[in-house]
């Protein structure tokens, strides 16, 4: 049976049968009983994203809600377990998806919801990105501790005192911040949104930090942002603010279902940004920014950035083209940045 989110007859058939047929990674036919299991990390933001996704899919096909077709499955990832080191030092950002994708491949879950910026550029064999949801605000924001003045200024970094200690585990943010303000100091700060805010407020903690405004908005904490940095001042991470859903490559039914809720604009900009990352072969040790957006004339603008972690080198370039060429634009811009950057950037 082909399950189509726009076809109530298919959903009714799903309810009557109580199961749908799919294929295991070994391509043997198997029977999946309801509910379909949705893998997710356990942070408040990850759970919000998963429930938002389920709200979209059941809105398109209400019968899926009536038959209680979905079940959340919280999976602890290696990236969540180690909080005192940079991701680059423990295996890279793929650690936020490793255990989830293992569960997907062995059939313990049926699909998985991710912050797309945490996904590896190359997904494991047998897993595909099935859909991208509408992008939230892609920008970064500064959150301030009690010792920072927070005064309004044309300079977005004026709120940070001379020599201030900034908490972040992102070398992309660190490199751009230190390039603009070499007087600042940086220490590692990781954890979910709530934990990072608590560390900034704590006595003896960092005086400020940087967070994605998308996460603050989704947690109804946008008021915590003292300054929202435009994408020119601080080039965002590739796919920041986009939620992505992965499935097994041979699961035609779920891929059909998810195609009904994909946001075409998000799919286009994420294709450009992920191709940029792939061309640069970026890891968590390489400060890379990537941000695509539509211009008023309908064309696509892609900004790419590479830097040294200490801010001593920073190269930023733009490319414009047709949305249909999004992936090709990403590869072209990535090759240009790689060609004109020092070799140690990618070491």
Note down, in words, how this protein is organized:
There is one protein chain. The chain has 347 residues and is of the alpha/beta class. Helix content is 32%, strand content 23%. The protein is built from twelve helices and 15 strands. The chain has helices at 8-17, 44-60, 62-66, 78-81, 87-90, 98-105, 171-180, 193-201, 213-218, 252-259, 264-280, 326-339, and strands spanning 19-23, 29-33, 36-40, 70-74, 111-115, 127-132, 140-144, 165-167, 185-187, 208-212, 227-229, 243-248, 288-294, 300-307, 314-321. The protein has a five-stranded mixed sheet with strand order 4-3-5-12-6, with helices on both faces. A five-stranded mixed sheet has the order 9-8-10-7-11, with helices on both faces. Strand 14 and strand 15 (314-321) form a beta hairpin. Mean pLDDT is 86; it is low at 1-30.
